[in-house]
User: Which sequence fits this backbone?
């Protein structure tokens, strides 16, 4: 039987049943790229969710970059290297160094998640075993509690009435700081001091106004504020922490290891928001967690709004591998999407607001019948050029 390899790219723009609204973006549909790799009968699924305001990437720019990558060298390496050795190398060095590739964080995430999934399937390993876990607790729990997020589309009273039980609350900031102060006060009045509360400003405040905002939120009962200033405002963030005493979590400012080191050296934050797509895949995300531990900082395992499958389970694998996170965001795919492109649907137990590890092997997902309509391009081993998917399908049939 001839050796076969190929790839199909899907741009998934699933309409959301409910919008999600925050200072940087109002979202009513997903905008993810899903990559299906096949190498001699083994498959792997990857995903990225580019956000211009986070890494500067778009689905169009990632697609163009993927089409320029020498995937033949990736398939050749998959054939020439024993799977366990290749996985060990990837967990140590990441996809870029292992395969000699270059690209933005979302492109690398797309490839890294697909390749880790493929190797996990070949080796019969579950997601937690595919991501680096150096320095993590030895025994992960059976379930993890997850955050609840109050965005601008929902009233605080409805949120408190319908979204519990609460383990950690993130409030998306409004244009009016007085509304945010009232919201934090209402949460504290209902929940008391037992649940941490964080306000996410998504880079929307100026240095001049931020000191007053943080002081007011601190007095209302907030524990943390996330990304209060423009990206990379290292000196201003350090002064803000010193003046107000309120903890700062950085998200958009910390996309790379260099960003994280700069944040630590500047004393600009108390915690990192780790997100698999933003940080270039599970391996770099795990390195950032290690850097946070070394610096005495906390970290959150976060999500991009409206992830559609592989990213969800890759993030959960990272969370169970590093169960000492300050909190874990599980996303709201169950609320956003009546139908998904993967099966089984990544679940959240809403009666407890907890998640369990996804069943493997790999990240434990397959594309279902809803995925086909989102396919945009593909390539086969006999024709390594990318083609619109209909052409690819016909070409593959001709050479079957």
Assistant:
């Amino acid at each position: 039987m001839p050796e076969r390899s190929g790839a199909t790219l899907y741009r998934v723009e699933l309409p959301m049943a409910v919008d999600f609204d925050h200072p940087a973006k109002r979202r009513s549909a997903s905008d993810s790229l899903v990559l299906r790799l096949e190498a001699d009968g083994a498959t792997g699924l990857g995903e990225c969710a580019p956000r211009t305001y986070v890494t500067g990437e778009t689905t169009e720019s990632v697609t163009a970059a993927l089409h320029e990558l020498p995937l033949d060298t990736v398939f050749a390496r998959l054939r020439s290297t024993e799977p366990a050795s290749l996985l060990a190398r990837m967990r140590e060095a990441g996809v870029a160094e292992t395969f000699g590739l270059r690209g933005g964080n979302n492109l690398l995430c797309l490839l890294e998640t697909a390749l880790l999934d493929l190797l996990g399937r070949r080796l019969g390993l579950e997601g937690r075993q595919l991501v680096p876990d150096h320095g993590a607790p030895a025994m992960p729990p059976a379930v993890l509690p997850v955050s609840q997020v109050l965005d601008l589309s929902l009233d605080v009273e409805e949120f408190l009435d319908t979204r519990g039980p609460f383990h950690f609350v993130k409030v998306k900031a409004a244009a009016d700081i007085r509304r945010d102060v009232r919201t934090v006060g209402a949460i504290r009045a209902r929940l008391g001091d037992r649940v941490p509360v964080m306000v996410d400003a998504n880079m929307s405040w100026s240095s001049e106004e931020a000191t007053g905002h943080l002081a007011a939120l601190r007095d209302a009962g907030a524990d943390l504020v996330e990304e209060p200033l423009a990206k990379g405002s290292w000196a201003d963030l350090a002064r803000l922490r010193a003046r107000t005493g309120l903890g700062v979590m950085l998200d958009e400012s910390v996309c790379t290891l260099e960003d994280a080191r700069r944040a630590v050296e500047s004393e600009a934050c108390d915690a990192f928001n780790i997100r698999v797509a933003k940080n270039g895949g599970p391996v770099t995300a795990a390195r950032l967690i290690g850097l946070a531990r070394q610096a005495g900082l906390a970290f959150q395992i976060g999500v991009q709004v409206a992830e559609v499958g592989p990213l969800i389970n890759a993030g959960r694998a990272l969370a169970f591998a590093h169960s000492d996170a300050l909190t874990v965001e599980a996303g709201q795919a169950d609320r956003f999407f009546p139908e998904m492109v993967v099966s089984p649907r990544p679940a959240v137990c809403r009666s407890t607001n907890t998640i369990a590890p996804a069943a493997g092997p790999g990240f434990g997902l397959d594309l279902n019948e809803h995925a086909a309509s989102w396919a945009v391009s593909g390539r086969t081993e006999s024709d390594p050029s990318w083609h619109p998917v209909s052409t690819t399908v016909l070409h593959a049939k001709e050479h079957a």
User: Anything to note?
Assistant: Confidence is low (pLDDT under 50) at residues 391-400. The two ends are 11 Å apart (CA to CA). The first helix runs from residue 52 to 55.
